[in-house]
Amino acid sequence: MHASNNQHQYNVYGIGNAIVDIVTEVDHDFFEKHEVEKGVMTLVDEKRQLQLMKAIDMKRSKMSGGGSAGNTVVALNQFGGKSFYSCLVAHDELGEFFLKDLARNGVDTNLKYENCPDGHSGRCLVMTSPDAQRTMNTFLGVSSFLSPEHLDEHAINNSQYVYLEGYLVASPKGLEAMKETKRLAQRHKVDVALTFSDASMVKYFSKQMEEIVGASVDMLFCNEEEAMIFTGTDTLGAAREKLRQVARRFAITLGANGAMIFDGDTFIDIEPYPVRAIDTNGAGDMFAGAFLYGITHGHSYAQAGKLASLASSRVVTQWGPRLTPADAQRILSDLLQ
């Protein structure tokens, strides 16, 4: 294990939607009864989500911190890194919960609860059916107002990487915040990492995503489907050749087939760890967090890829997108053996 670069206070400065996951179990007829499209993630308005929250048993539901980049920075910290997160929650119970969750995981933020706006914090209702399928209804709340004013230039300057969450392209202010983060990072010679987040973001917001990628990003995270949609290709081989033109380095996750990494010179195949997946939500977030931990702590791209592959294979064998700090330390020691 190598020490991280001492000139930087943070390995990663993340920006993304702050979402509290409310995980609940529902029976099969719930979906038809409440007209919910099963097995997918749907963005809903507040009225719709409150209807659903009344219909479920909130007492038996479990709350946990979520959001794509939020999960990534927490994962990085659990492995032993240090991260900073810029996001927006409301001055409500869920907002307080989210900020306490960041603090408990050692993630620094420039958001103070007393300065949070009125309104509702972002939340994702995760409905688990008896067949182990997850159906998500997300209400972004005040998170959709995340904008350049919520950034912290000092923290960006003190980071090795900024990490941009692709979901932000769906909101005009979020897109501006991403562009400004990238601009500040480049001004301070900080590397820029981007995750596409979801195939729908690349498909329906391709113009916005291209604006963010611009001439180049230093590190891109995506899955096979997102890579092909973004490059307009229909094979992994063609997609990775085109990605080389816009990303200096990248990682393409391949689900059960592991991952493929381009380190700037060479393509590296990362072996999968065969597991029985029960919940793939958060696997990509975990991959990015573990990988960024690896490359900011003296590991080679191949070693970082191996760590990321192992960590994401562990996270899919359980419910929820996060591991415990003890799990993360166990994964590190398993790899070093």
Condensed summary:
By secondary structure, the protein is an alpha/beta fold. The protein has 13 helices and 14 strands. A hairpin with a 4-residue loop joins strand 13 and strand 14.
Key features of this structure:
single chain, nine-stranded mixed sheet, Adenosine kinase, small domain, disordered N terminus, five-stranded mixed sheet, alpha/beta, 22% strand
Fold blueprint:
Elements (H helix, E strand, L loop, with lengths): L9 E6 L3 E7 L3 H5 L7 E3 L2 H10 L6 E5 L1 H12 L3 E4 L6 H12 L3 E2 L12 E7 L5 E6 L13 H5 L1 E7 L6 H16 L3 E5 L3 H6 L1 H8 L3 E7 H8 L4 H8 L3 E7 L5 E4 L4 E4 L12 H13 L5 H15 L9 H12 L1
Parallel strand pairs: 1-5, 1-9, 2-7, 3-8, 5-6, 9-10, 10-11, 11-12
Antiparallel strand pairs: 2-4, 7-8, 12-13, 13-14
